[in-house]
Amino acid sequence: MSTDINCGYLRGIWIKRAKRGPMDPAQSADLEMTRGIRGNADQKGKRQVTVIELEVWKALMRDLEGSLSPSARRANLMLEGIRLANSRGRILQIGTCQIMVSGETRPCEQMKAELAGLRAAMRPDWRGGAFGEVICDGRTVIGDAVRWLD
């Protein structure tokens, strides 16, 4: 596991077939410029891809004494070794793909329903993750290297 906050690895991929639908785990995903993840319900706009941090998810579960799968967060990609806080406008390289971070993902009502206290615990410091636009497309697979482009 990398301890450098500027490089890490892709540890999870989930694709949502329909709005409010289940999050299907995947080993790989095709990211399309200006659209998002192929087959994902959320495409176009600034919220094409959502991203969370493995370390933050583990801390949330530890703090709340929960055992939810990270898929409960309803994000598309889970990263390890990368900090997302205050990353608006930065470019995240995942394998050959690039995502421009558009903003912080605010936890919705569903998080409260998943685990008591989860929504409130996710609010500070970008603990709910980030969302962004695909600016360089390609295929990404679990285990791909992840880094910030500066």
Under the CATH scheme, the architecture is: Beta Barrel
Q: Determine the oligomeric state from the structure.
A: single chain
CATH class: Mainly Beta
Largest pleated sheet: 7 strands, mixed, barrel
- How many discrete domains? 1
Rg measurement, Å: 14 Å
Helical proportion, percent range:
10-25%
Briefly note the CATH topology name. M1 Pyruvate Kinase, Domain 3
Helix count, DSSP H or I runs of 4 or more residues: 3
Q: Could you name the ranges where pLDDT drops below 50 across 5 or more consecutive residues?
A: none
Kindly describe this structure.
The mean pLDDT is 91. 15% of the residues lie in helices and 40% in strands. The two termini are 22 Å apart. It has 3 helices and 11 strands; from the N terminus they run E-E-E-E-E-H-E-E-E-H-H-E-E-E. With 150 residues, it is mainly β. It is globular. Strand 5, helix 1 and strand 6 form a beta-alpha-beta unit. It has one domain: PK beta-barrel domain-like (M1 Pyruvate Kinase, Domain 3), CATH 2.40.33.
